[in-house]
Specification:
By secondary structure, the protein is mainly beta. It is built from no helices and five strands. The chain has strands spanning 8-14, 19-26, 29-36, 43-46, 54-57. It is flat.
């Protein structure tokens, strides 16, 4: 996947591995933050109409 903007943030959910991966794409590098499901105690999505949304993971 080609990133549209420098510093794009991509979230991937690997159900079989029980893992959420955040990738920050900065040409030509990719930084990853991996979180196991067992480390997550809460997830909340805030999506106001006609505005950018927020995903909170605790």
């Amino acid at each position: 996947r080609m990133n549209t903007y420098e510093g794009d943030l991509v979230a991937k959910i690997y159900y079989a591995k029980r893992k959420i991966v955040w990738e920050i794409l900065q040409r030509p590098l990719k930084c990853k933050i991996e979180t196991q499901w067992s480390d997550i105690i809460g997830i909340r999505a805030i999506m106001p109409p006609n505005r950018e949304g927020t995903l909170e993971i605790e």
